[in-house]
Amino acid sequence: MQNTRTDYQLALQQLTDSALPTGAFAHSLGFETYIDRGLVTDEATFSAWLHSFIGQQLTYSDGLAIRFLYEGDGLAELDEVLTGCLLAREVRESSAKMGGRLLEMGDEVFPSAGLSAYRELVRAGRAVGHQPLAFAVVARSLGVPLPEALAAYCFATVTSLTQNAVRAIPLGQNAGQRVLRAAHDAVAAAVEAVPNLHRDDLGAVSPGLEISQMRHERQRARMFMS
């Protein structure tokens, strides 16, 4: 007998593998600005930034958007609202680039009616194709429960950012693993918080984080696209 839980867990591992070619290695989502300003310099300061990012953007933006899609919100409308919530141009573009790659790969590897519908909206210019929504469409079609989808998405993002920090600060590989272990509780807190938030909470991200993401666009020397 087929084990549905095993099936979707294996699919989640593939979707969240750091080797998945979505381009996540090219984005810092703002932490490079903190490096440039001398505020993120080592394991402790990056870990502090990462915990803030998890509690803010991953909770109130990406995580809440994933929840609303699971609850049946229309893709075009939710995509439009998320576009408006992502104030930094580079972050909007990075979400679209990574989402576009995920939609393309997902359509080949994990095809579904919902994924095809989202791709059609993007082709027609009625949606951008944001990364968290693309992930949510695939995860929901695979029967992944919302809490597991949220945990997988958040930790995959945390892993990508930590790998990028290992190169940029730089940190040692062991330090990166300590940062990831220390992030477990923050990710669990985000997964617990998302179901208790309200509609008006979508996009309620710390201004300091958003300003750092905007400043990155004009940073003189940088490794990352955002």
Secondary structure elements and pairings:
Elements (H helix, E strand, L loop, with lengths): L3 H12 L15 H6 L6 H28 L4 H11 L3 H21 L3 H11 L7 H11 L4 H23 L4 H10 L1 H10 L13 H10 L10
Describe this entry's structure for a reader.
The protein has eleven helices and no strands. Helix 3 (43-70) runs parallel beside helix 10 and helix 8 runs antiparallel to helix 9 (173-182). With 226 residues, it is mainly α. Helix content is 68%, strand content 0%. It has a single domain, classed as Urease accessory protein UreF (Orthogonal Bundle). The chain is globular and about 45 Å long.
Write a short abstract of this structure.
The protein contains 11 helices and no strands.
Task: Catalogue the unreliable spans.
Answer: none
State the end-to-end distance: 46 Å
Name the helix and strand elements from N-terminus to C-terminus, one letter apiece.
HHHHHHHHHHH
Number of strands: 0
In terms of quaternary structure, what is this? single chain
Structural class assignment: mainly alpha
Number of helices: 11
So what's the CATH class?
Mainly Alpha
General shape: globular
How much helical structure, as a percent, in the residues? Answer: 55-70%
